[in-house]
C-alpha cells in the first residue's frame, strides 16, 4: 500500500494525528511543517499562474477558529516574509490556543487583520483556512455569508485540507462551501474529496505529504485498508505485462463479447475496439447476423459470430461455431447495444459458469428478471458496470447519495463485483473492499464511452482471470486505464474532442506512459 492509495475519514485522521502527537511530535511543530509545505506549493503554483495574473503578489488569508485557521496563519506569516502583500480575514470571537498565538504574532508583524467584509482590500489570490476536518455542523449566518461573498470575488482560491464547508467524509455541502480552484489535502486523502458531490468545489487537488509514519496508518486503518484510491501501483501489479515470452494466442485469454443490434451497431464496434486495446489473445464477438459485415470491416482480427435475430434486429439466440460452447471462453462481456429483446441470451450467459461482465441492456434485463435472485444463482465471477440510472433500476432500494456505501451494499447483496460509473467511479467486491477512481475527466461524458470500458475490462479479465488476481483489482485497473486515456485525449484535443472512437485510440498511449 502507498500513501497515495489511502483514504481516510475525519475520525480516522484524528486517530492517526493523535498517535503522532502521543508519540511526542509537538502539535505546533507539525503545524509549522505542514504550513511550510503549503507555502512552497502555493509559491510554485502562483508562478505558473503568473501568465494569467501578472502582479499576483496580494494574498487574502481566510482564518477559522481551529487548527485549519492555525495552518492558514502560519502560511500568512511565511508569505509575508517572502515578500507577498498579505492581509488576514478572521471574524471569529474565539480561537483555539495555538491558532490564537499565531494570530497574535501575525498582528505583531503588522499584517493587516480584518473582521468585517466591507473593509477588505483587494487581492489576487485567496487562501482558505476557515474550516478543515473539524467541521461537523452547518455553516450559518455571518460565516456562510462570508463564504458566499468570497466565492463571488472570482479570484483563485487555494483551500487548506479541504474547501471550507465540505463534510470531510461524505463531501456534502454543510450550508455553503468555498469553491476552490486548488485544494491542498494534508497528509492523506480525505474521503469527502473523492465523492462526486464535492467535485465542483475542489478544483485541482494535491496531496501534501507531511511524512505520516506508515505504522500509524496501519494501526488505525489495518494492514489492508478497505477503501482505497486506484493508483498506478495497483495497475502495474494487475496488468498482464510483461507477457511470457512463450505465451500463445490461446494462453492470452479468449473473450466473448455479446453485443449490438441492428439499432445499436456502433456499440458493438466500440466494445470490440475497447477489447482490442486490452491485448486480448483471441476475441470473438457475437452480433446479429445482419451487422456481421460491419463488425468484420472494423475488427478484422476478431471472430465475428453472426447470430439469428429477432424481428427487431436483436440477437434471438446464440449460435456459436461448431465444437464451441460458452465454456470455451475465458470470459464473457455482455450488454452494449443488445436491446431488451435479447433477454434469453442474458439468461443463458448468467446460467453459464464463465466469468461474466454485465453492462448496459444486460443490466436492464437483469433488473427485470429480479436482480438479487438472478445473480445469487451464479457460481463464478460476475461484474456489473451500471451508471447511476442502471444502478437505480437494479437496486431501487439502495440510496446512492453515499456512492461508496451504495456500491458496497449492492456488491454484498448480489455477490458480484459492482462498478458504479460516474465522475468518480467506485468499485466494490462482495466483502466491501472498495476502489475509487479519483482521476478522470468530464470529456468521457459521451455516449459510447462506457461501451469502450466494457470491452477493455472484458479483455483484461479474460487475460488474467486464471492467475492469482483479485477481480476488483482487474475492474479497477480497467477503470483507471479508461479514465487516463480520456485525460490524455482531452489534454491534446480539449474536453470536447474525446468521442468514444477517439478514446479507443488513446488507450495504448496510456501504457506507453507507465
Ligand atoms: N491531521 C493532522 O495531522 C493535521 C491537521 N492540521 C490541521 O488541523 C485541521 C483540523 O483542525 P481542528 O480539529 O481544529 O478543526 P478545524 O477544521 O480547524 O475547525 C474546527 C473549528 O471550527 C469550529 N466550527 C465547527 N463547525 C462550525 C460552524 N458550522 N460554524 C462555526 N464554527 C464552527 C469549531 O468550534 P466549536 O465546534 O468548538 O464551536 C472548531 O473550533 C485540519 O483540517 C488541518 O488543517 C494541521 O495543522 C497539522 C496536521
Ligand atoms: N463527468 C464525468 N467525469 C468523468 N467520467 C465520466 C463523467 N461522466 C461519465 N464518465 C464516464 O464515462 C463512461 C460513461 O459510460 P456510460 O454511461 O455507460 O456510457 P455509454 O453507455 O453511452 O457507453 C463511464 O466510464 C463514466 O465513468
Ligand atoms: K479549508
Automatic annotation (TrEMBL):
InterPro entries: Carbohydrate_kinase_pred_CS, CARKD, Nnr, Ribokinase-like, YjeF_N_dom, YjeF_N_dom_sf
GO MF terms held by the record: ADP-dependent NAD(P)H-hydrate dehydratase activity; ATP binding; metal ion binding; NAD(P)HX epimerase activity
Listed EC numbers: 4.2.1.136, 5.1.99.6
Catalyzed chemical reaction(s): (6S)-NADPHX + ADP = AMP + phosphate + NADPH + H(+); (6R)-NADHX = (6S)-NADHX; (6R)-NADPHX = (6S)-NADPHX; (6S)-NADHX + ADP = AMP + phosphate + NADH + H(+)
Entry note: cofactor: Binds 1 potassium ion per subunit.
Gene3D superfamilies in the cross-refs: 3.40.1190.20, YjeF N-terminal domain
Chain positions recorded as K(+) binding sites: 68, 128, 164
Annotated (6S)-NADPHX binding sites: 67-71, 132-138, 161, 337, 387, 451
HAMAP family, alphabetized: NADHX_dehydratase, NADHX_epimerase
PANTHER family for this protein: ATP-DEPENDENT (S)-NAD(P)H-HYDRATE DEHYDRATASE (PTHR12592:SF0), ATP-DEPENDENT (S)-NAD(P)H-HYDRATE DEHYDRATASE FAMILY MEMBER (PTHR12592)
Biological role: Bifunctional enzyme that catalyzes the epimerization of the S- and R-forms of NAD(P)HX and the dehydration of the S-form of NAD(P)HX at the expense of ADP, which is converted to AMP. This allows the repair of both epimers of NAD(P)HX, a damaged form of NAD(P)H that is a result of enzymatic or heat-dependent hydration.
Protein name as catalogued: Bifunctional NAD(P)H-hydrate repair enzyme
Record organism: Trichormus variabilis SAG 1403-4b
Amino acid at each position: 500500500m502507498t500513501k497515495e492509495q489511502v483514504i481516510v475519514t475525519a475520525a480516522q485522521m484524528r486517530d492517526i494525528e493523535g498517535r503522532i502527537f502521543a508519540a511526542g511530535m509537538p502539535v505546533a511543530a507539525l503545524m509549522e511543517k505542514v504550513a511550510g509545505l503549503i507555502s512552497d506549493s502555493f509559491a510554485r503554483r502562483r508562478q505558473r499562474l503568473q501568465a494569467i495574473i501578472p502582479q499576483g503578489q496580494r494574498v487574502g488569508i481566510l482564518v477559522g477558529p481551529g487548527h485549519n485557521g492555525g495552518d492558514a496563519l502560519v502560511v500568512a506569516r511565511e508569505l509575508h516574509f517572502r515578500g507577498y502583500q498579505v492581509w488576514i480575514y478572521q471574524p471569529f470571537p474565539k480561537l483555539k490556543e495555538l491558532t490564537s498565538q499565531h494570530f497574535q504574532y501575525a498582528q505583531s508583524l503588522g499584517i493587516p487583520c480584518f473582521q468585517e467584509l466591507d473593509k477588505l482590500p483587494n487581492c489576487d489570490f485567496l487562501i482558505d483556512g476557515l474550516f478543515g476536518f473539524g467541521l461537523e455542523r452547518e455553516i450559518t449566518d455571518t460565516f456562510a455569508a462570508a463564504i458566499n461573498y468570497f466565492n463571488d470575488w472570482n479570484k483563485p482560491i487555494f483551500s487548506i485540507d479541504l474547501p471550507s464547508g465540505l463534510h470531510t467524509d461524505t463531501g456534502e455541502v454543510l450550508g455553503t462551501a468555498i469553491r476552490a480552484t486548488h485544494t491542498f489535502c494534508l497528509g492523506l486523502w480525505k474521503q469527502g474529496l473523492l465523492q462526486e458531490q464535492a467535485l465542483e468545489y475542489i478544483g485541482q487537488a494535491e496531496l501534501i505529504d507531511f511524512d505520516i509514519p506508515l505504522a500509524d496508518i496501519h494501526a488505525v486503518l489495518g494492514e489492508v485498508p478497505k477503501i482505497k484510491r486506484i493508483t498506478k501501483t495497483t495497475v502495474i501489479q494487475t496488468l498482464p505485462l510483461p507477457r511470457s515470452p512463450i505465451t500463445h494466442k490461446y494462453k492470452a485469454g479468449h473473450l466473448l463479447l455479446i453485443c449490438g443490434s441492428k439499432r445499436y451497431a456502433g456499440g458493438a464496434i466500440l466494445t470490440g475496439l475497447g477489447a482490442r486495446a486490452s491485448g486480448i489473445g483471441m476475441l470473438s464477438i457475437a452480433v446479429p447476423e445482419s451487422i456481421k459485415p460491419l463488425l468484420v470491416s472494423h475488427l478484422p482480427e476478431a471472430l465475428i459470430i453472426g447470430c439469428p435475430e429477432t424481428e427487431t434486429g436483436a440477437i434471438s439466440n446464440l449460435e456459436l461455431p461448431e465444437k464451441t460452447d460458452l465454456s470455451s471462453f475465458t470470459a464473457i462481456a455482455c450488454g452494449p447495444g443488445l436491446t431488451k429483446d435479447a433477454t434469453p441470451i442474458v439468461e443463458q450467459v448468467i446460467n453459464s459458469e464463465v466469468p461474466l461482465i454485465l453492462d448496459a441492456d444486460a443490466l436492464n434485463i437483469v433488473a427485470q428478471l429480479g436482480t438479487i435472485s438472478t445473480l445469487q444463482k451464479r457460481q463464478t465471477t460476475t461484474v456489473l458496470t451500471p451508471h447511476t440510472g442502471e444502478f437505480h433500476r437494479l437496486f431501487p432500494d439502495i440510496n446512492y447519495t453515499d456512492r461508496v456505501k451504495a456500491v458496497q451494499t449492492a456488491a454484498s447483496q448480489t455477490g458480484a463485483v459492482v462498478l458504479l460509473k460516474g465522475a468518480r467511479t467506485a468499485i466494490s467486491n462482495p466483502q466491501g473492499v472498495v476502489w475509487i477512481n479519483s482521476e478522470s475527466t468530464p470529456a468521457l461524458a459521451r455516449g459510447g464511452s462506457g461501451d469502450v470500458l466494457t470491452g477493455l475490462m472484458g479483455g483484461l479479465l479474460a487475460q488474467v482471470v486464471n492467475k492469482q488476481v483479485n477481480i476488483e483489482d482487474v475492474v479497477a485497473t480497467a477503470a483507471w486505464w479508461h479514465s487516463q486515456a480520456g485525460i490524455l485525449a482531452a489534454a491534446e484535443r480539449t474536453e470536447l474532442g474525446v468521442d468514444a472512437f477517439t478514446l479507443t485510440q488513446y488507450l495504448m498511449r496510456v501504457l506507453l506512459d507507465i
